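## retry 2 of 3
previous attempt timed out at serialization; input unchanged, resubmitting
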Amino acid sequence: MDFEKLGAFYLGREVETNDLTVMDRPLMYDASDLTTHAVIVGMTGSGKTGLGVGLIEEAALDGVPVLAIDPKGDLGNLALTFPELRGEDFAPWIDPRGAEKAGTDVATYAASQAESWRSGLASWGQSPDRIERLRAAATVSVYTPGSSAGRPISVLRSFAAPGAAVIADADLMSDRLSATATGLLALLSQDPDPLGREHILLSTLLDDAWRAGRDMSVADLIRGVQEPPFRQIGVMDLDTVFPAKDRLKLALSLNTLLAAPSFESWTRGEPLDVQDLLYEKSGRPRVSVITISHLSDAERMFFLTLLLSEVVAWTRTQTGTSSLRAIVYIDELFGFLPPVAEPPTKRPLLTLLKQARAFGVGLALSTQNPIDLDYKALSNAGTWFIGRLQTERDVDRLIEGLRASSGATDTASLSDVIARLPKRTFVMHNVHDAHPTVFQTRWVMSYLAGPLSREQIRRLSTGGSTAAAVGAPLGTAQGQVDAHDVPRGRDPARADDAPSTVRPTGSSAGGDRPILPPHVPQLFGPVQGGDEGTRYFPSLLGVADVHYSSKTHGIEHGARVSRVVELDEGPVPVSWSKGEVSPVNLEGLDQRPSPGVSFAAMPSVSLDEASVVGWEKLVDRWLRTEGALTLYRDANTRLVSRPGETEREFRLRSAQAGRESRDTSMEKLRSRYRTKIETADRRIMTAQQAVGREQQQFNTRAVDVAGSILGSLLGRGKVVTAINSAVRKGSSATKDMGDVQRARARLAAAHEDKDALEAELMRELSALRDGVVGAEAIDLDTVAIKPTSRDIVVRFLGIVWLPYRQKEGRWLPV
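## retry succeeded, writing output
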């Protein structure tokens, strides 16, 4: 059977339950089953890491991004994929002690490992081409928070304010505040009790800043702890609940953290952004390995609390789906989800276990010891992969927990099988299947070199090996601009289209406010940071409320379009096409100028009433043509982006829609063929029974013939009569033999019919699978939705005086 055509994860081969012999039947795991989460349990040496690596490889091949948390340092091996399987590719990752133990040098040992991987993959039906497809399917990046060995992640540069969706959700905001404060206190080795005054103070400071749209740095927190912007906590005075001298102790602890040499490593690197960890800018999926083996227990708890809280927030911003969207894999669960204690990581994990399924986010949690698990918390886990366990007590504990969490009933047979499991063999208890399945894990495509050292991780991150693609798309150098980052079509009302500066127009010579005709409206930008050295420069501001409507694409969208245009002294004084998105809101402008601020001279342009009316006609024309709402469209599915949706967001949504459609079509296809295959199985069973009957009848007649002949030879009865009887029975036996052959032919035909059905199913499944492309490969074009004049209401059209301040010979906006 061709496992590549099934649209599922190839994890290994099924094993016969009684004698544990491996059968020639692939174990295929439906990707959508992982949305109900999975748990991997097994002692050291049971093959857990191999199963986890294989699961991640299959996800990557299927275009599913993975966020892999690696407490032991083993998952960096996912970056070690070598399609050519050459010894020199393996050599940089060989442990010299392993070569020494084998009695050879590193080069020879590397060649033997390469050959071992080649033959191992071949024995499981995998070719080097599959490794090439794996490398092309997803980028593997190794991150090392708190260290520069791999790709660092900045988590202490600032506690950035969450998005509007998080702030608007009371539960989500509460979880984010609690997790951030708890993680920070754990890093400070202080009591993270949510009812403790330290926790309450930090949470309140963060809440106050975030709701005002401000990010908080550690320095901001130190100042806030010393002088909070509020005087009460609850209904009591601040100094009564938390006296100033006690707050000073907390501030000193934070300051010690800020002053520590190791602090800098937490401020460098990429921001902690789950979307960026899961997808490239182009929408290509990523496998982001977060290695935390180098961190202390307190640092691990702090970082994972923040990371898991970010995952919860990201998950809740996604649309609902029944298809697998992303995987969060934790290679060792010990200490993060215990049965009794309440570490700060437990709450976000519980939230994901309960809620992530609806958004297509699956958790895969691995652990050595059943005692590490909170079985009540894991009641939402739909799949359990159970390997060898240390003791009989561990088996009993797991069986009891499995019965409680997933409702397993046939625990006696499960217990017997688990007790006999060899290495790399697992029992899969899947609530979506009728009964548990025993299987042996396949040979993984990644080279399992063992835990990577910091130097090896550094080598990966700097591209100093054949695995140079780590941290960057294949064929793309790190830091190179992705072509997909260039916007192709924009919403004219999008604030993020605004430039960082607006060029000042008019003469820079300072003077009094120019006198303009009364029919020319004027507004003034707010002046911040004092008036000294500040000057107003004139521009033309147009503000309109525009309604974009398209029944074809299902769009009804209102937007406020604000555009600033330079006033040109040439023959065409106003060109809205050359304008820019206004950096200020209409409501934020003043009716009067700030006292003490000088004015630049007005350009020599006509300001008569006809010219002002002409400005409005020009802005109306621009909005009806170039001011169209430009949206992305998937040329294949005709799906259209939402207003304000970025190209990456739309690519991901379109790819997910394609995956959902594929999964639904595959399930319908399997359901349609299931009845036909069941009928074919019944025909095979009937034919097998017929062969058995005909064979038994032939055997009986053959015995009778032999008996008649033997009786005649021994003189029993009349010889001629005995011989005649033997001849008649022999004739019947010959006929019976023909019946056996015909029955066998019918059995062979029944098998051929079933094989043909399965082959036809495989072809149709393959066609469905091949029809889904990755987000980065989706062919996009754009559609423009143009408003009519009746869809445009001009709110302001006139001169805006924007303040600038001179610095190093340049005028910069205030």
